[in-house]
Amino acid sequence: MTHKTSYHNGAPAGRLERAARLRWVLLSQMRVNPLAQRELRPARVSRLAAEFDVEQMGTPTVSYRGGWYYLIDGQHRIEALKVWLGSWEDQQVQCWCYEGLTEADEAAVFLKLNDTLTVRCFDRFKVAVAAGRTTEADIDRIVRALGLRISANRGGGGISATGTLARVYARGGPNVLSRALRIIRDAYGDAGLDGPASTGSA
């Protein structure tokens, strides 16, 4: 006999279960996947550590892969906890744990978890590229094709104004973005790469 799940307002009746499971994880077993995380900001870590409150720490989210627990959400809180503890190698923290995720999956989960939180535009863009989001990946392709790169560090062809890139792309499409970046690169060099909107395309 086939079991049928009853639904109410589009959701299954009874208990709703997350794909992630609560698990105690050693801090020493945690790693950071740079493709699925914002850049670590030491100033934020210091601020969190200075006023650290275990009750307000929340529950970090990790992905178990290759024998390590990769942080998807909670990187700054975990680093602040380490500072606060001093000696932390044997410390365990309760986390929401996923299994069987790829690096792209981890990036996608990061974006979902941070959809309602304030995340720097650059960080969201970087993670969206890792997750294979169509628009961000195409923008990254265009930038690389011109011998440039998406980078938080200016100079050497680095572009950090990802919000502007996205706006130009949304309004004019890939050809307009490519043409605008080419003009700026050739006319102004590094000095103009953080302001592609100055071409009038944004």
Describe it:
With 202 residues, the protein is an alpha/beta fold. 40% of the residues lie in helices and 18% in strands. It has six helices and nine strands. It has helices at 42-50, 75-85, 103-113, 121-130, 134-145, 162-188; strands at 7-8, 11-12, 21-26, 30-32, 61-65, 68-73, 92-99, 149-150, 158-159. A hairpin with a 2-residue loop joins strand 1 (7-8) and strand 2. Helix 1 crosses helix 2 (75-85) and helix 5 packs parallel to helix 6 (162-188).
Taking all Cα atoms into account, the compactness measure Rg is 21 Å
The largest pleated sheet is described as: 5 strands, mixed
Order of strands across the main sheet: 3-7-5-6-4
Which class best fits the helix and strand makeup? Answer: alpha/beta
Average predicted local confidence, pLDDT: 81
Tally the helices. Answer: 6
Distance between the termini: 60 Å
Reading the helices and strands in chain order gives: EEEEHEEHEHHHEEH
Tell me how many strands there are: 9
Contiguous uncertain segments of 5+ residues: 1-8, 196-202
Beta-strand residue fraction? 15-25%
Principal-axes geometry comes out as: elongated
Q: What level of helicity do the residues show? A: 25-40%
List descriptors.
five-stranded mixed sheet, two-stranded antiparallel sheet, single chain, 202 residues, alpha/beta, 6 helices
